[in-house]
Amino acid sequence: MKIKQYLSAIAASVLMPILIVLAIFPVRDWFTTTDIVMLQLVWVTLVALRSNRRVAAITTLVSVACTDWFFVTPYFTFHIENIEYVVTFAVMLIVGLVISQLAGQLTSKINDIKQHASNTSCLYELAKGLNGLDEIDSQRGYFQTTVEHHLHITLDWWQVIPVKQPQSRCYFVNGEIDSCWGGFTASQSLDEARSAFLNTAISVLYQAHENTKLRQQSAAISVQAELERAKNALLRSLSHDLRTPLATIMGASSMLADENIVLNEEMAAEQARNIFEQSKILNEHFDKVMELSRVNKMGEDLQWQSISLQTLISEAQARRQQLLINFELTTAISEQDSCQGDITLLEIALANMFENASRYGNGHATLSFSYQQDAQQIDYQLRITNQLASSLPSSTDQGVGLGSVICDVVAKFHHGRFTLEINEQQQSASACLAWSKLHD
């Protein structure tokens, strides 16, 4: 490449001025010396615009020499008899050198502007690409590929920068030897401009690392807040749902155990039935707690698979077969309808939705299914609506029910949510299980 540039410079500064005067030489009587000087300056200007100032200066000197050699008497010598030619050649030389200097400065500024534009474009694409990545290792790899391609160098990444590495070749992510992000070293020494660009690019990488760290911390805080919310909801449900049957059992058993209270056989049997019924309720609550524990364990190893909705509904109903004997479900789901998710967890969630609709409803419910798909994910939604059997209590101590907590946990594992809306004026309830499957 350098040899080609060298030969091109020789051709522009030496050969072309000679060719120009040789082309004019046969018709030299048609031109004055001043005309020939102007023609030579045209070529000097073109060379200055297309090449550097050094080549343009050499072109000027060669042009003056050629003009003197071919067009000034005595011909084919550098002797000048007429003093006015000295002034002409001096002016030609000065003008040519000035043109070379100005054109060189203009070319240098244009090259600087192009380089700045290229650097700005590269930094923009780098920042956009880094912000689109969520892992620090991926950001570092994208940075290394982009900068190496732009600067035509090789970068080596070090988790810990070697102490003996020359400082002139070390470029740290945040300028500290003990940086937790590590650093880069260049394969060759860089000039001031490329060094400045690399330091600027590394600062962009550092900001991307910091943003990623903040996003991860924010996500961790959100997860922790969600866990606290779920824990509080669970404790609230247990507090309310266990207090009532325990109070009934304690009251009935204290009456049976109190020697000062005389109960006939009918009253004693009634208290025994109360104890039995409330014990069954307690047993159901403990089953819910065990089911919630199972859901949490299964959610740690979520298994995505394609599921037939009719199969999902039938399996969910089978899980609560005894409770849903008198429960009637209306649905318009066809055999072709399907979804994606963990079939066991979705069965548990849907079974709890059926149980709540049967327990608190009028024995009839409607199930609807819908989905939306885009380039990033598929959103699924199962909704159960039913009329309430009676008005719900409005006590502030009312529990939300472990069944709803289980549905919410299942939805969270599937990147979704569970909502329960109760319209007391219309005496209706709507439970919605929504989740999303992200495209790989």
UniProtKB/TrEMBL annotation:
The chain crosses the membrane at residues 7-25, 56-77, 83-104. Its EC number is 2.7.13.3. Pfam families: DUF4118, HisKA. It comes from Pseudoalteromonas haloplanktis (Alteromonas haloplanktis). Residues 237-421 form the Histidine kinase domain. It is found in: Membrane. Signal peptide: none annotated. SMART domains: HisKA. This is histidine kinase. Its main location: membrane.
